[in-house]
Amino acid sequence: MNWTEILEFSRGPFFNVALFIFVAGMMYRLVRILLLGWSRDRVPGKGSKLWGSIRSFLKGILILPFIPWVKNTFTKNPITYLAGGIFHLGLFAVIFLGTPHMLVWKSLLGFGWPTLPVPIIDFLAAAAIVAMFALLINRHIHPVMKRITALGDYLNWLLVFLPMVSGYMMTHHLFFRYEVLYSLHMISVNILLIWIPLSRISHFMFYFFSRAIHGAQFGKRAVTP
Amino acid sequence: MKSKQAMDTFVQETGGWVAAQLEACTRCGLCAEACHFYEATGNPDYAPVWKMELLRRAYEQRFTFSGKWKQALGIEKGVTEEDLTEWSRLVYEACTVCNKCAMVCPMGIQIGPLIHEVRSAMAAAGVVPDDLMKATQNQLQVGSPLGVSDDMFEERLEWITDEWEVDIPIDKKGADTLVVFTSIELMKFPTNFAAIATIMNKAGENWTISSKGREVVNFGFFEGSHEHTVLFLKRVFDAAKELEVKRIVISECGHAYDAFRWTAANLMDVPVDIEITHILAVIAGFIRQGKIKLRNEAHKNGTISFHDACKIQRRGGLINEPREILKILAGDSFKELTPNREQAMCCGGGGGVISIKEADPLRFAAFGLKVEQMKKAGTQSVCMTCSNCRLQFSEGVAHYQLDVKVRGLSEMVADALV
To answer: How distant is the Cα of A17 from the closest Cα of chain B, in angstroms?
Structure first.
């Protein structure tokens, strides 16, 4: 098997299988949580749960998590905040607004959208990779992070890091032949796709639950979430 | 055996609401920075995420593949009796369930209520600190965690009635409002007791207290025991039904307000058509409706700050009311502590922590953060709407030898009545 064949396999059948496992796995996780039972809240509210949830999402998605000085408690842990924010920003920009990735989405969904210029995407990707190192080091030295980190957390880091770094090397033609890097990128992406439903990386789905719950809890008490 | 009881409770408590939030946790550790116990000591065990570790482990090992594998492969152990003993200290002595952590969690997880679930498992397994257990037993048998018997209650009431020359109607059937006090107010802050009575009379309210439902504090709720929580709530609800009142007013107690206003209906059948509210909301209502009038800037003791209680402000929603009142009472000498309102830091004594002798060094350490805030604001007097906070402040101010006056807001209102 030569690299061209490996590439064909990893971006063809392997990718399709990984994608299927990812979607099916996440669906399973979702259904499992939904079926665990949700007791009705019988407490009469003071404010609106819906409005609370809307504000909770606006705050969660748009601004506050990325502005450490908004809450003075955040200034005590700027690394997690800034590096965490930059990582997610870079990750989502690359996945959704990078031209090559948009084309993948287009082939899956049937429609595309405008993307960001290469230099901007490139910068965000590099920033995200640097941020990942900051987070890794922080995880290793911060007393709280040391306390709560298990083997799985390092594995999560590694499996997210590999596609990112291989993708970056690929766009810059670093060290290896293009087919080799492309193959490595696809293989690592596939492994990540399979790993996500089994790990905490699935938090992107439960984010919508927890923020809605947060908003409802504060909204019903008429408190800013 | 104990660990099985704890495990069963964990599983029983875990519905979608709990599970979805546990799944959302990314283990970023940011919640630690919100916790006054962690801030004061730097001990990573006090990170809120670590305090709910047992709940997470129980959930994953019972409900998820990855948890089952981890346990089977020996990467993660089950919940053992040693764990219960260790976490009993963490969740009862180093957590006030103030839910400030939820405010900084990027995922918005309600960590406070989840730690309450851990407490429930501890209570089911009987791994509750001795002091807390004793107070609960007191409330079960005598009717008050401080051991106030029926006779003592009557005597004390007579004394307050005489001393402050205020009418306190007892067991008045057909009254509109039932006010339920804490024994902390009765025994330690009688001025507040008298103040609330004076305000109710002045506003012309048709009110009463009950000799049966006379304790608003709920040690079952501190403990996390459903059975006890419901039992103590029921005493007051039964009294309210018997006296045919239209509303129950919780006096200056935070945890009680949370239990009655925001929890009871989900634990038990609560009497319909009886409104549950807090004395702060009632007083603010009186002022808005013009039922009572206050002297402007009646407060003369220099810069005054308001301490936001976790259960009355952040988790109770009564945030603007005290500020409206203080604007009248103190005008420009009212200075906010930072952070404030729903972002405020807990005093360190709530959630039953103050009743556990062993936790004293920890709660005084946590109070150090409040001391810093007061120094920064130049606070000379501080007031609040929770007797539990007030007790912590009184003891904390003495511990740090500060020259700060600690007051209940109702007291200040009563002093300024025209």
So the answer is: 20
CA distance A94 to chain B (A): 21
On whether the CB atoms of residues B370 and B363 are closer than 8 A, the answer is: no
pLDDT of amino acid A145: 92
Residues B24 and A210 sit within 8 Å (Cβ to Cβ): yes
The separation between the first and the last C-alpha atoms of chain B, rounded to the nearest angstrom, is: 62
Which residue from B70, B103, B265 is facing A42, i.e. has the nearest CB? B265
Distance CA B48, CA B59 (A): 17
CATH number of the domain where residue B359 is located = 3.40.50
- The Cβ-side half-sphere exposure at A209, using a 13 Å CA radius, reads 21
**Rounded CA gap, A103 and A14, in Å?**
18
- B165-175 burial: b if 16+ Cβ within 10 Å, else e: ebebeebeeeb
Residues B280, B309 within the same domain: no
Within a domain: residue B295?
no
Cβ atoms B210, B239 nearer than 8 A: yes
Cβ distance of B20 and A210 shorter than 8 Å: yes
A200-218 pLDDT, tens digit each: 999 999 999 999 999 999 9
Which residue is it, tokens 């009469």?
Answer: A44
Contacts of B290 (CB under 8 A, 6+ apart): none
Residue A33: φ, ψ to 5°: -65, -40
Q: Same structural domain for residues B31 and B96?
A: yes
Across the interface, of B34, B50, B313, the residue whose CB is closest to A148 is B50
Residue B296 lies in a domain: no
At A75, the pLDDT band (50, 70, 90 cuts) reads low
Give SS3 for B250: strand
Q: Which of A39-48, B61-70, B106-115 has the highest mean pLDDT?
A: B106-115
**How many pairs of residues across A and B have Cβ atoms under 8 Å apart?**
158
Q: Is the pLDDT of residue B326 over 90?
A: yes
Q: Could you tell me the pLDDT band of residue A72, with boundaries at 50, 70 and 90?
A: low
pLDDT at B261 over 90: yes
The reply to whether B312 and B250 lie within a common domain is: no
* B162 and B273, same domain (yes or no): yes
* Total tally of structural domains belonging to chain B: 3
What's the domain range around B375?
304-415
pTM for the whole thing?
Answer: 0.91
Q: How far is A179 from chain B (nearest CA, A)?
A: 34
* Cβ <8 Å between B20 and A33: yes
DSSP lists the bridge partners of residue B177 as B207, B247
- Whether residue B265 lies inside any domain: the answer is yes
A20/chain B closest Cα distance in angstroms? 18
Provide ipTM, 2 decimals.
0.91
CA distance B413 to B415: 5
Residues B316, B408 share a domain? yes
Least confident of A68-82, A126-140, B55-69, B346-360: A68-82
Q: B28 touching A, CB under 8 A?
A: yes
* Angle subtended by helix axes A203-220 and B16-24, to nearest 10: 120
